[in-house]
Amino acid sequence: MIKFILISFLFFQVNSVLAMAKTIIWQCQVDRVNGKKQNNGKINKYKIDVTTPMVWVGDETRWSGFENTKFLYDKNNHLLTSDSNSWAGIYYLIENKIEFINNLANLKIIYKCKEL
């Protein structure tokens, strides 16, 4: 019973933090490309705003938005999705992970991230 209460409390806290957070900054490194593990993958920083929703890439001094991209935030599953002409993205806000998929180039890139 105590475990159930603790798990419920933790889940509520995570939901509350994401509900209150307007902007999250992640440092992400490429983990896999088309299923193949990457060593020393490229590192990017992403600023994620779940209220707008919107995503920028860059650093503390300069952030660039994604052009011609639509964003949707799924509150129930804590996912932010992006869709442009060539790329689709899924931002897993609980798992701190991003998947970018380009079907035209048959390319799937997975980033593992940490919150800054």
Can you walk through the features of this model?
The protein has 116 residues and is of the alpha+beta class. The chain has one helix at 2-20, and strands at residues 23-33, 36-37, 43-49, 54-58, 63-65, 70-74, 79-83, 88-92, 97-102, 107-115. Strands 1, 2, 3, 4, 5, 6, 7, 8, 9 and 10 form a 10-stranded antiparallel beta sheet that branches. The protein is globular and about 35 Å long. The termini are far apart.
Q: Which outline best applies?
A: globular
Work out the number of β strands: 10
Radius of gyration: 15 Å
CA-CA gap between termini: 34 Å
The succession of helices and strands, N to C, reads HEEEEEEEEEE
> How much is the average pLDDT?
85
What is this entry, summarized?
The chain has about 120 residues and is of the alpha+beta class. It contains one helix and ten strands, in the order H-E-E-E-E-E-E-E-E-E-E.
SSE blueprint and pairings:
Elements: H1 2-20, E1 23-33, E2 36-37, E3 43-49, E4 54-58, E5 63-65, E6 70-74, E7 79-83, E8 88-92, E9 97-102, E10 107-115
What key attributes describe this structure?
116 residues; alpha+beta; 1 helix; 10 strands
